[in-house]
Specification:
Shape: globular
Oligomer: single chain
Number of domains: 2
Structural class: alpha/beta
CATH class of the largest domain: Alpha Beta
CATH architecture of the largest domain: 3-Layer(aba) Sandwich
Radius of gyration: 23 Å
Largest sheet: 7 strands, mixed
CATH superfamily of the largest domain: Type I PLP-dependent aspartate aminotransferase-like (Major domain)
CATH topology of the largest domain: Aspartate Aminotransferase, domain 2
Strand order of the largest sheet: 4-10-9-8-7-5-6
Length: about 425
Amino acid sequence: MTFENSLKFAQQLDEQDELKSYRNKFHIPVINGKETIYFTGNSLGLQPKSTLAYIKQELEDWAKLGVEGHFHAKNPWFSYHEQFAKPIAKIVGALPKEVVVMNNLTVNLNLLMVSFYRPTNQRYKIVCEAKAFPSDQYALEMQVRNAGFNPDDAIIEVAPREGERTIRHEDIIAAIENAGNSLACVMIGGVNYFTGQVFDMKAITEAGHKVGANVGFDLAHGAGNIELKLHEWKVDFACWCSYKYLNSGPGGVSGVFIHEKHCNNTELPRFAGWWGQEKETRFLMEKGFKPMKSAEAWQMSNAPILTMAAHKAAIDIFEEVGMEKLLKKQKMLSGYLEFIIDNINEKHLDKSSGKFLEIITPRDWKERGCQVSVIAHGFGKKLFNQLTNEGVISDWREPNVIRMAPAPLYNSFEDVYRFGEILTKAIKD
């Protein structure tokens, strides 16, 4: 499609959008009496209007039933987490038995590393991407230290080449192959939080397995954003948060994927709790951990019902829409944002002056999702602040990157056009 930088064109796209009604299912923040242009679904997704009712249901059942709510609530708390298996499996491309919702993201990453980072004196290294999200960096560092190794030696970071913004796929594969039989684990953010680059998880998994390593991904910026086929790709493990593209509230519960072949291995080391115990014997309270043959075996505690209720409100919307429609609109929406930024560069900025907007997110659709990251050369944070003051909610990352992620469930093409108007005015001030 040939895009146009005009209000009429944007409104035509919105009229043709089969998901346009879903915007009304979300609370859009208001500043100075006007709805914001909310482009931070990659940081905190918007609240579904149904969330309050979902949480209220559990509060009412708690008030009326007390402890009996575990078995007699409208949505019994004892098995509350089980209702996520099928819809979450569709979102990440898994079997229902391979996923479970529990804890928070970095807690889950550390729990998974207990099972999938099993270093020996010979095989102890980890490959990850440079500039991984800090929580990932800290988790890997401490996993290595706790195993008695030096992170400077054990952790292999793959960085962009000099003068480049993103990491070349062949450099990740080369790092894995070069590590060879010293490599215990590959753990990469499936979508880089800074640039929005999507990595080739299928090929990375194949390369890791070829040298005998386990392979996992942090999908905080992937779940609900890009197409995932974790089971088909034979990924060993993955985890993600639910508060970004999955719209489940600040600090919302995390999701976990563990491939079926590992779920069936009851001898695999892990940290245990009573909610991972086989259901038939859980309430006998006997000694001896007997894990279920599913991802639930990694679930140490019973479900945090109130945060899971918020998660259910959001996931029910995903189940209604389906990832296929979301991905179709996602490409159009972020593609239009990319076009608008390019158009502003062409019409209003001169690169030779040192003031221009550089999109550092890959242009190849296989390597991107909703997010568009832009270096604001020559502008600094003043530009970001001007956008915010005009009602554009985006995200600043030092030293000079603005991250924007229009989400297909609640953002419109008119949002993108209006952003272009505001950006044009801001760069002229």
